[in-house]
Fold this sequence. Notes:
By secondary structure, chain A is of the alpha/beta class.
Amino acid sequence: MRPHRSQSVPLVALLFGAFAQPIVHGATQTIQEDTLKAVYTYQLGKFTEWPATKLTPSEANLNFCILGKNPFGSSALDAIQNKRVQGRRLEIEIYPSGLLPNEATATCHILFISESEKSRLRSILAQLRDSPVLTVSDIDNFAAQGGMIALVKLQQRVRFEINPMALRRSGLAVSSKLLELAKLVPDRRPGALR
Amino acid sequence: MRAFRDLRITHKLMIIMMITSSVAVLIMAVAMVINQAVKESRAVANQLETLAQIIGSRSTSALAFDDPRTAEENLHALAAKSNIVHAVIHKANGSIFAQYRASKTWPDPGSFWVFANEIEVAKDIILDGERVGRIRIVSTMDDFYATLIEQIMWTLIIMVSCFAVSFIISSRLHKVISDPILRLRGAMDNVSTRQDYSVRAETRADDELGVLTDGFNHMLQQIQIRDAELASYRADLEAEIAARTKELAQATRKRISWLQTLARFLRHELKNATVGVRTSLELIERRTRDRSIDAYVQRARKSMGFMNTLLESVGNASSLEASIYQDARRPLDLSELISTCLEEYRSSYAANGFVVKCVAGIAILGNEDRVRQMLDKLVSNAVDHSKPETPIIISLEKRGNQAILSVLNEGAKLPEDKERVFELFVSMRDSKHKRTDNLGLGLYIVKLVAESHGGQVQAQDLKDKEGAIFSVTLPII
């Protein structure tokens, strides 16, 4: 299955969206939640360190993969389209079928698992097998179930839950600055390595 | 400046050295303080910038994920720095994201300080090459001022120390210059107050002052040599004068004793001889019958009488000269003497009139009898040579410290060789009285008396008419 490439958005609009507008403004709820989640997910890339084997210095793109039914509206996608993360262009790839091809495990840097795949979560995580892909999702208890970063809605704001064990197992490192903001959640899967 | 000019050289040198070193130290101190102030203010700014950098960097995630609470926590770390008044994190669009305000307040220090009381630094917060916000920190300059004041205090202490040290050093060093000058001055004082030219100023260095001192010493040496020469000349001269005086005194004594012998001889031996002649003449007169011889005897007797008179006079003159130097001297008012004698002259020489022009109160040191004798001789000489019916003019005046007594008469002119009139047995003018006793003794006595009184006599012709004036100059007391 070929990934669907999103439509490119005008650069000016992007810049406008990124800087001029209060895109991150949870308190007043002027921004759609999906946009906020999209932006947060992409920004997580800025605080994450991939192993050099996964993100080689010559690599020009950082792949943002969405697994399952795309939860982001067009304005949300526009907000993150062509963004740069760690000097690389953000490439959005969507796997709407919910099936992750094996090559995608290698190419994806950030994997957003859609709520639609809630039931298949266990098998998806098993498929990934601790490969260095930053898994992000807004599925309840995502982190506790072995996901790396969960987006949680808390007091009208989107906050994080981080499973440091999962990160460590996959060889990824997130900045302490990010950990500061997050709630750390232990892996509650039976038999999970501590 | 005038006060400075009149200061002692020691103080002047010290002041100059102190001013020089103080100005140097002051300039250095000011430069040091300014340098320190600039450095310190830069350090304060640097420190704040570093803080802003650290907190900004720590707050990137908070900005990225809209978590102002975390950002505020980060800002609260600034509470550890007591100077920080206020810190704000702005979002990229400029709105306030998080802020910190110190709980304590600062008194307004006013506008005393040259530097601002507060410093503000601002830094962009960059996340992954993107500007996500800006941090601004406002701090008081309290630390800076504290450091600056400490620095100024230290500088002041150092300055005072430098001042003290330079005072101590200059109070010793000035001697290099002032000592030779003071020594020179001391030597000069000695010379001028004690007239002691044997002193020498000590030379210790070969500089200009050394040369000056050497020059001064050389000058003193020259003066001393000249002094010694003068002193030896004077001593020689005194010795010579003493010798001459002695010789003169001896000669005078010899002359006096010779004169005394002569006088005795004339009075006794020759007189005794004349006694024999006179007795013989008496015997011849008594024994002879021939009256024709009487005329010769008479003539011989007359000659005999004249010879006796002559002997008497010469004897007197000799004893006068012998005794005149031994007479007692007293203060003598000449004008009084003249007026006393005038009575006598008027009666003695009634044929002549007398005119007297006297300045009163002229006194000399002399023997009254001798001076009177001198005046007598002058007057009788004038009368002798005066034309009939012409007055004799006696005048007394003062010229400097000399009394001038002069006697003037109209009549015969003086001979060509004026000075000879004062010699013994010389009578050169034609006298109207061919008196037997005019043996040329009068003017000799005048000269004798004048000279024995430290004076002199001179004779002059009158300028407008025939006649002569005799002037005796005598020293006034």
